[in-house]
Amino acid sequence: MKTLRKVQVLTSLTIHQLQRLCDILCEETYSMGDEVVVQGDAGEKFFLIQSGQGQALVDGTVVMNLRDHDYFGERALISKEPRAATVVVTSPTMTCLTIGKRAFEDVLGPLQDIIDEDRKLRESRRKSHLAPTTSQDVTALGIAQQDDLGFISTTSLTGGNNADSCLRTYHKVDLCHSNLHLAAVRSLDVGNALLTSHITSPYIISPISVFNDPSSVNILYDGAVVGDIGMIMEDGAIPEYDSKNIAGCIALGLNAVHQVT
């Protein structure tokens, strides 16, 4: 159940719903070299790897290594859009827990309806606090990272001590004098585009608002982000598995951003 809670399209399920989902998962075993799913085929199942290893390939190029407790094919629970990648087994065997869209809906109803209801609830909560228009409208909990253009701070929209958002702040004076100002301007443009597009992607943290203060420009994000990839690399080389996973997430995130910018 702990792994299921990490699946983006399942985050709106309650503990009771997740338990019911666990009860109807089916077990399937594959052998080395088997193609569990094929890029371009219609998506019909969601897969959670119970044991074993595999690789995700896009157009024949490995984009991600998969292992115990990883998952793929979650979008099949919403629609039958074509598979984005081929998954090949690289260990002697790979055992997966699976569920199809029809079995899911027989027990819990359409996942899209659950997601829509959860979104409405979150939107109503957010409206009750109004969209922040200055940095004074959010509670700053601490600075997570600083760079040449400003900083990233964890924040709370409800005034409590639990971080539920983060604020990317660009100092205006630094924007004027830094050779990175074009990158910052581009980041603000992307933030505004995502804000109006209402795009949903597990690889993008949605902005809540973009606003100006007297000395800064700010983007408030719907998630407690604590840094960026540069922060991860400060400690030295990233393990190969993690670096490929990060690269794959970045590529999918950029693809989603390019749809609206």
Can you tell me the CATH architecture of the largest domain? 2-Layer Sandwich
| Number of DSSP helical runs | 7
Give the tally of structural domains: 2
Could you state the oligomeric state of the chains shown?
single chain
CATH class of the largest domain: Alpha Beta
DSSP E strands, number: 13
| Helix-strand string | HEEEEEEEEHHEEEHHEEHH
Overall pLDDT, averaged? 76
Report the sheet-strand fraction.
Answer: 25-35%
Topology (elements, then pairings):
Blueprint: H1 15-24, E1 26-31, E2 35-37, E3 45-51, E4 54-58, E5 61-66, E6 71-72, E7 86-89, E8 93-100, H2 101-108, H3 111-129, E9 139-147, E10 150-156, E11 165-171, H4 172-177, H5 181-197, E12 207-213, E13 216-221, H6 229-233, H7 240-258
Helix pairs in contact: 1-2
